[in-house]
Specification:
Number of helices: 1
Structural class: mainly beta
Order of helices and strands: HEEEEEEEEEEEEEE
Largest sheet: 8 strands, antiparallel, barrel
Shape: elongated
Number of strands: 14
Radius of gyration: 20 Å
Strand order of the largest sheet: 1-4-5-6-7-9-10-13
Helix content: under 10%
Oligomer: single chain
Length: about 240
């Protein structure tokens, strides 16, 4: 099992259930509000990511990772008046981190690693402010990691590993989001992943020896991103008015 149930996990699950129940209730309520405005927005995201790392007691070696590609999103917005709304939708994101001091548990060597996964997921959130101009938003994202890449740098050598629908990472990633939407579509977002990036129980056999490459590697990715939601109902936000 990827998820170990404890009090902390139970609190997270309770928070998710509460948030989803609130959003569902608001969505149902919105169907009876005459001023409800429903529409789609779409755009890209440029991610600057880090990770909170505890690698068997070591916490150093975290480096910023820049990911402008491939991060796309389509959001379904339900605005109840001019000051409040909810959103959901679908996204694909390139999420990961760079670790300079990774210790290979097989060889004992210290190497540089770049980890990333492509995730497809669903967001749930609330928006408060002026819906057509400036607002803050907060919510929860649930995603599935369908593609994984790992690069190893040692001296002048670079090795690359790619896996589709594998189990080197925890398949389901989740976290909370807060952000600020500015006029004309640009916004700034902060996201923190509550789930550990790697599956510490992943095992591979090398020379008939069982090997756990991510044992003790606890890494919670977090990032700041620039988002460009420039479209509203397939038309640009920016108008002469």
């Amino acid at each position: 099992m990827f998820l170990k149930f404890n009090r902390h996990t139970e609190k997270i699950i309770d928070m998710k259930k509460t948030l989803l129940a609130v959003i569902l209730a608001i969505t149902l309520y919105s169907s009876g509000v005459s001023q409800t405005n429903k529409y789609w927005t779409g755009g890209s995201e440029t991610i600057f990511s880090f990770a909170n790392i505890d690698d068997n007691g070591s916490t150093s070696g975290n480096v910023m990772r820049f990911a402008p590609f491939l991060n796309i999103q389509e959001m379904y917005n339900i605005d109840m008046g001019k000051s409040f709304g909810v959103y959901t939708g679908v996204f694909v994101r390139n999420v990961g981190f760079i670790y300079d001091n990774y210790k290979d548990l097989q060889t004992g060597d210290i190497v540089k690693k770049k980890f990333r996964s492509y995730n497809i997921g669903v967001p749930f959130g609330l928006k408060i402010g002026k819906m057509e101009k400036f607002f803050i938003y907060a919510g929860y994202d649930l995603a599935y990691a369908f593609n994984y890449k790992e690069k190893t740098f040692q001296n002048d050598r670079k090795d690359k590993l790619v896996s589709w629908f594998g189990n080197r990472v925890n398949a389901f990633q989740h976290g909370f989001v807060v952000g600020i939407q500015f006029p004309y579509g640009m916004n700034i977002k902060f996201k923190y992943y509550l789930s550990n990036f790697h599956n510490q129980d992943y095992m591979e056999t090398i020379d008939q020896v069982d090997y756990y490459p991510y044992k003790g590697l606890n890494a919670n990715v977090w990032y700041i991103s620039l988002n460009f939601n420039l479209f509203k109902n397939n038309e640009l936000y920016i108008t002469e008015e």
